Amino acid sequence: MKKREKLAIIRQHYPNAISTIDSINKLIDFVEAQLDLEPAQIMMADSICSDDVNSIQFPVRSNEFLGPFKLGGLDGFPFAGLSGMGAFASHVPDDGAVLVYYGPHIGISKEGVLGEIHRFGQQNSTDCCGAAKGALKKLHANTIALGHLEDIDYQMNTIEQIILKEKDRILSAVHPLKETTEVIYEAIDARINELINQTKYTCKYVILLGTIHINSDTDMGSFTSAKRFELINLATNERQNLMEEFFN
């Protein structure tokens, strides 16, 4: 299947999606051309789901960055918290930059089915993101108890609490799973920015790329639907919105 055919399937749901390979290439071009830095001066953290498919489908070229430091747990929420972000910040080259790639993920099969992908070696498609779909199933069944958090399943319970706050919005949506993913993105984006604001960095810049990370079947790969591309100049605390530049 040609690249344009793959994108046509994904863009039925996410019109601004590009391949994750292209998104990493754009990031590398940006740090080289606009920041005059080499990828080896960039310490990358990702806050994406711990699902194995994300490791399998993430572009090899991302290894040109340092890291990645893993901030995320189920569906990308930054469960490493303030201590994790602080540890990550201490690893960054003084003359370099921090890059945080973050967001929830969702599957779209080559047939265009939301929430499913065909994984390598399996006969049938499986859920993606399984945590989001599981939480949504409990939301439909009205079995999420407000404030319920157990140590044995803390991350899943946290995802459940996030979507419970937006129950009516999610259940009234045309695509409840897609809306669930949007709600989780908003929670991740808010938490990442909270962590950034409370962390001291000794480098020059913080680069934020907030996305809906889209997985597909083994022979399709993964895609990025960017929602935030922002540069923070740590010398001036100026924030620069670069979304237009990212897509150009």
TrEMBL record:
<feature type="domain" description="Limiting CO2-inducible protein B/C beta carbonyic anhydrase">
    <location>
        <begin position="19"/>
        <end position="232"/>
    </location>
</feature>
<dbReference type="InterPro" id="IPR040703">
    <property type="entry name" value="LCIB/C_CA"/>
</dbReference>
<dbReference type="Pfam" id="PF18599">
    <property type="entry name" value="LCIB_C_CA"/>
</dbReference>
<protein>
    <recommendedName>
        <fullName>Limiting CO2-inducible protein B/C beta carbonyic anhydrase domain-containing protein</fullName>
    </recommendedName>
</protein>
